Amino acid sequence: MRKKFLRPESRISLPALFFTILAIIFHSLYLPSAFSKEKKRITREEFINVLAKHQPTSSLVPKNSAALSEDEIYAQTIQLLKLQGFNALEGKDPGGPLLDMEFVVVTYAFTGAPAGKGLLDQKLYLKNAGIVISPDIGLATAVEGKVFQSTDGEKLKRRTQIASPVFLKDKIDTGVNSKVSFAFDDASTISIGENARVKITKHIFDPDKNLRQTVVQVSLGAVRFAVTKEKNKDSTFKVITPAGIAGVRGTEFVVIVKPDGTSTFVGLEGSIETVPFSPEGKPGKAQIISGEQTQEISGQGQASAVTRVPSELMQKAQQDTAIDPMISKDQGVTKLEAEMAAKIANKERLSNEAQKETATSEEDEIKSLPHEGNDLPKDLLKKPGLPGEQTLPDKPVT
Questions:
Q1: pLDDT in tens, 37-90
Q2: Are residues 242 and 218 in contact, defined by beta-carbon separation less than 8 angstroms?
Q3: CA torsion, points 355, 361, 367, 369, in degrees to nearest 10?
Q4: Based on the domain organization, do 164 and 266 belong to the same domain?
Q5: In terms of domains, do 148 and 41 share one?
Q6: Comparing 46 with 154, which gets the higher pLDDT?
Q7: Residue 76 domain flag
Q8: What is the DSSP secondary-structure string of 157-224?
Q9: How does pLDDT run across 121-148, given as a tens digit for each residue?
Q10: pLDDT of 210-243, one tens digit each?
Q11: Domain that residue 80 falls in
């Protein structure tokens, strides 16, 4: 960034200079101390203790929490979270800043909602509760020029800005001399070059299971993918082009799609597996592309041999998709935000517990009704909303 200097002819009056210096002193001495607690990102341990303070009767908080230190409350709560299927904080540094993904998982757990849900479902739940604003799957970390997004069913496109959320089923279009980079919840990134069309077809991320399943369609243009490697063997990341498909587990590569559908895959790190498709959808032979290797698949599904990337192609692939992140994907959570989330989560937990008690009492009432043998009336057995509800088979089970 260029430094700006005063021109020689510029003049500053003494009173103006005095008040300027006074403002600088006031800002440096008072403003940080007044707002540092509000703006500072909260740590994992601080967040757990905020939740514990607002939910002393939660099953995720140690029963003797009043007699425990903050370190002990954190350690025991992490174990209780793990027992209920929430592993987002396991093995993490208690003094490290709380990540956005961790905030969602842990807050969701403290609402008393069931485990086993992906991050998107958890965000949807917290959005309905008023805790998070958007059930996105990631956000834009860098934007150059004109970039637009639209979701299935939307007639109007929305202009992509820094920190714009990206949603499942989003279509992304870049204009001339335009680029954009998105970071997903699993920390994978895509950087899209000019005159490109991309669609996020599928994205399931469950940090508690280290599971990620993502499908991205590239219809046109150059796109760089940096895919994180998940521990779960069922994790997948697939890139579909008009000519074929690339499957990856954890690597970095570039896909270039021409208007006629011809697709070029350029490996940067790790390896990818490509499969060409004929116009009728018939798959061809799978091949492995490693770092500094390339393959071209024609619009008719004819795949070339895997060869070393020519220096000109490597340079073009990197330049066309190069864009430096302007912000971090993870913005963190402040103490004030944590306090507000904890209060709402407590109300949600109490509401969920009340609903469970009501459902249980209804089930007990039905079980207490007179009946012959072990057969309950069909209309009661089919009553919706009861835990462990049963339905009678239409035919005898053999």
A1: 446 899 999 999 999 999 999 999 999 998 999 999 999 999 999 999 999 999
A2: no
A3: -120
A4: yes
A5: no
A6: 46
A7: yes
A8: -EE--TT-EE-TTEEEEE-TT-EEEEEETTS-EEEE-SS-EEEEEEEEEETTTTEEEEEEEEEEEEEE
A9: 999 999 999 999 889 999 999 999 999 9
A10: 899 999 999 999 999 999 988 888 999 999 999 9
A11: 32-135+333-352
Count up the domains in the chain and report the number: 2
Q: Are 184 and 236 in the same domain?
A: yes
Question: Residue 255 forms beta bridges with which residues?
Answer: 223, 265
Decide if 307 is inside a domain: yes
pTM (2 d.p.):
0.76
**147 and 41 both lie in a single domain:** no
Whether 309 shows a pLDDT value over 80: the answer reads yes
Report the C-alpha gap between 13 and 371 in whole angstroms. 96
Given a cut of 60, whether residue 207 has pLDDT beyond it is: yes
Q: 149, 196, 195, 187: which is closest to 168 by C-alpha?
A: 149
Same structural domain for residues 176 and 123?
A: no
- Both 87 and 149 in a single domain? no
| Secondary structure of 265-334 in HEC code, one letter for each residue | EEEEECEEEEEEECCCCCECCCEEEECCEEEEECCCCCECCCEECCHHHHHHHHHHCCCCCCCCCCCCCE
Q: pLDDT class for 12, splitting at 50, 70, 90? A: very low
Tokens for 283? 């798959």
Within a domain: 3: no
Q: In terms of domains, do 175 and 149 share one?
A: yes
**DSSP bridge pairs for 192:** 180, 223
Q: Does residue 370 sit within a domain?
A: no
Give, for 153, the enclosing helix (H) or strand (E).
none
Name the average pLDDT for the chain.
84
Q: Are residues 281 and 150 both part of a single domain? A: yes
C-alpha 112/C-alpha 349 separation (Å) is 5
